[in-house]
Design brief:
The protein has 371 residues and is α/β, with parallel strands linked by helices. The chain contains 18 helices and 14 strands.
Length: 371
Amino acid sequence: MVEEGAYWLAWAQISGIGPVLLRRLQQHFGTLATAWKATKVQLGEVEGFGFQTLEKVVQQRSRLHPEQLFTKHQQENSHFWTPADADYPRLLLETPSPPPILYYRGEVELQENLGQKPMVGIVGTRQPSEYGIRWTRQISTALAKNGFTVVSGMAEGIDTESHIAAMKAGGRTIAVLGTGVDVIYPHKNRDLYKQILTAGLVVSEYPTKTPPDRKHFPRRNRIIAGLSRAILVMEAPLKSGALITATYANEFGRDVYALPGRLDDHPSQGCLKLLSQGASFILKELDELLTMLGAIPQIDGVEASTAPEQLMPTLSPELQTVMDAIASEALPFDFIVQQTGMAAGSVSGALLQLELMGFVSQLPGMRYQKS
């Protein structure tokens, strides 16, 4: 029997079938293996499958053999995940357009993939000011020292500074590329790339040997936003890829923070726009930012999580089911619904009761954690 991952790969080879349509196929048929065997009429019932798309599916599907394709792809790309894999990053999987294939190189940390270790995206201009560089270094260092993984795009400027500062602080970092994971761009970051492979991960939705392409980079920004619990925009002019990342973050229910700047500073215009649209301020008091991002408070050098757990009363089966699905780390509402298998309305009501009882706290972006 061909594994489900092979069908994710096979469907992705059909022109006109992107991540959004793949997600709809899976939701409609239950599995992509079932969808592969569906008739033209059945496929036409899926939203977004117009006449031209259906014709492409009929023509191209008959030429593809999922198992053979998957075996060949593994030989050419040794490390990749599909949404059918348990190791596929959980937060990214919750987005409307998860990459059907996510390639990676470096050191995998399962806690990151499972959403048990917080990841924060840092993005900004390729030509930052001294002010932007200084604050990027300070914030990346603080995040790394408090157990966060810093996610960025390995571009020049803010991206590069965030990766370097996180690793210098002894933390992990993830670079999301707009090329294949074996293609270094910009080439001047070749040493940085090698360092990231030993202190983190590089990921991409593009197969090995894929060269730089202008249209790839805006698309990869959705992956940065999807992997991250929050996006910090350090400096960004009005026409900046960082604003694309912030837009995706808003769509995915992630928190967006922006570094304020002077009204007449060109690199700050995008940040000021985000702040006027409701983004949170990055302020000088970094402890407050870390608290908002879910950092575990320190008490006399000992993590608060080592304290004895609060004794809980006996809960109803419904409340207990929801409580069991919530971790000490903040989890999105949709993920809790998925974990419990309950209706969204029932989960929402249970969360409200648990919050009133003091056992659950709600954070920005409809995320919940144990109090």
